[in-house]
Specification:
heterodimer, A: 271 residues, alpha/beta, globular, B: 86 residues, alpha+beta, two-stranded antiparallel ribbon
């Protein structure tokens, strides 16, 4: 039976889709079977970040409404044969997602794949609660910024109350993925530090992704950053996060700390 | 601005941290969950059976930690309130 992960945040634009694609590709590079599911019905974007936008024929809503089979809607990645995408619908809205339909699709996916990664829409409405409903664990994507931290706190509350795990009285495993982190600004005192965010949200950290132009470059090209340039700093941070998702215990590294002596001296002086 | 202005400029991250801590403590306690509201109503009903009390003087608060949640119940009973059971 595969594991279901929801990638969620409450706030939009913090990197849910980027992280879904990057983690999916990182997990699939080990040969494990991975499907990334876009729950953002009406505003789909995971297909674009994955570079599969021209290959979408059927989508999640078609499958839920019985207009297509799951095998017809799944798109196999051109670079990694164990990575698949289930796209969201572009033309219809979230009301087309039924609880029973989502239940059926996720149950089927869990049987075939090792990892089912659900890319949640922003907000705390139906689309977001359906995306988290079946999750075994949650990746809460947060930027070191006040509104993102506040929204993540709301989402953590929902994960503990509106999921099947919560309804069964079980504990939802939640992990913090801190994205767009700039260690120089944090060191200077102009950005919340890792420890600040951890103390406020009190969930364990699964990775710190540095602010980097490599992320935009990858999405421009239509490739998960872990496939576009596996050696760049954000990709390496996503690979580490993926290993932690598998249960490996790795020490957390703060990206940018190896910036070199000049960066450090400059960072301190500006304080 | 003089060059010394740069050194006097207040760091903003501690402000962000403090504002969030205050805000989230409040939000978790109030709107956070329906559970707190339900508990508050039921606790109030049970105590009101035995003691006259003001509904506004019952505070129920839920605090979340990594390993556990703490439910805090604070009930103020006025000194002149008659114990109904007595």
């Amino acid at each position: 039976m595969g594991k279901v992960i929801v990638v969620t945040s409450g706030k939009g634009g913090v990197g849910k889709t980027t992280s879904t694609a990057a983690l999916g590709a990182a997990l699939a590079q080990n040969g494990e079977r991975v499907v990334v599911v876009d729950f953002d019905v009406g505003l789909r974007n995971l297909d674009l970040v994955m570079g599969a936008e021209r290959r979408v024929v059927y989508d999640l809503v078609n499958v839920i409404q019985g207009e297509a089979k799951l095998t017809q809607a799944l798109i196999r990645d051109k670079r990694l044969e164990s990575l698949f995408l289930l796209p969201a619908s572009q033309t219809r809205d979230k009301d087309n997602l039924t609880t029973e339909g989502v239940d059926r699709v996720i149950t089927e996916l869990k049987r075939v794949f090792d990892w089912v990664i659900c890319d949640s829409p922003a907000g705390i409405e139906r689309g977001a609660t359906l995306a988290m409903r079946h999750a075994d664990m949650a990746v809460v994507v947060t930027n070191p910024e006040v509104s993102s931290v506040r929204d993540s706190d709301r989402i953590i509350g929902l994960l503990d109350s509106k999921t099947l795990k919560a309804e069964r009285g079980e504990r939802m495993e939640k992990h913090l993925l801190l994205t767009r982190y700039d260690s120089v600004r944090a060191e200077r005192g102009d950005m919340l530090k890792v420890d600040d965010v951890l103390e406020i949200l009190s969930i364990p950290l699964i990775g710190i992704i540095p602010e980097s132009s490599d992320v935009l470059r990858a999405s421009n090209m239509g490739a998960p950053v872990t496939l576009a340039d596996a050696r760049c700093a954000p990709a390496m941070a996503y690979f580490e996060a993926a290993r932690r998702l598998r249960g490996e215990q790795l020490p957390i590294t703060i990206p940018g700390d190896k910036r070199g002596i000049f960066g450090k001296i400059f960072g301190r002086k500006a304080a | 601005m003089s060059i010394f202005g740069l050194f006097r400029k207040q760091k903003s991250a501690p402000m962000a941290r403090e504002r969030l801590q205050v805000l989230l403590a409040h939000e978790r306690a109030s709107s956070g969950s329906d559970l707190v509201a339900i508990l508050r109503e039921e606790i109030l009903a049970v105590i009101a059976k035995h003691v006259d009390l003001d509904a506004d003087r019952v505070h129920v608060k839920m605090d979340r930690d990594e390993n556990m949640s703490i439910l805090e119940i604070d009930v103020e009973i006025p000194t002149n309130s008659a114990l109904k059971a007595a």
